Amino acid sequence: MITVTEQAKERVVLLMKEEKKPEGAFIRVGVEGGGCSGLSYKLEFDTLMKEGDQVFEDKGVKVVVDKKSFLYLIGTELDYSGGLNGKGFVFVNPNASRTCGCGESFSV
Length: 108
Known about the structure:
Layout: E1 3-4, H1 6-18, E2 26-33, E3 39-46, E4 54-58, E5 61-65, H2 67-73, E6 77-81, E7 88-92, E8 98-99, E9 105-107
Parallel strand pairs: 1-6, 2-5
Antiparallel strand pairs: 2-3, 3-9, 4-5, 6-7, 8-9
């Protein structure tokens, strides 16, 4: 399961409103090769489901993950940080054995 913090939920709702996303839009979370630790996170809005997608809903936010990425993201929490050290979504991934300093890539 992928969970969402209250801060991430508030930011998702705001961004969907600002970007005028249609009813039924959701967050697509994924993993791709790259980054300084070997794997990088992907995060985008989407409206089309694909075969094999895993669907989760937490705090009213629908999160969709492709089957391959789900293996790396089981138990991950999506958070949002608006602090002085930078703004953005943060992945708290219990499967990551190593992460880079920016938090955008990891290895298992």
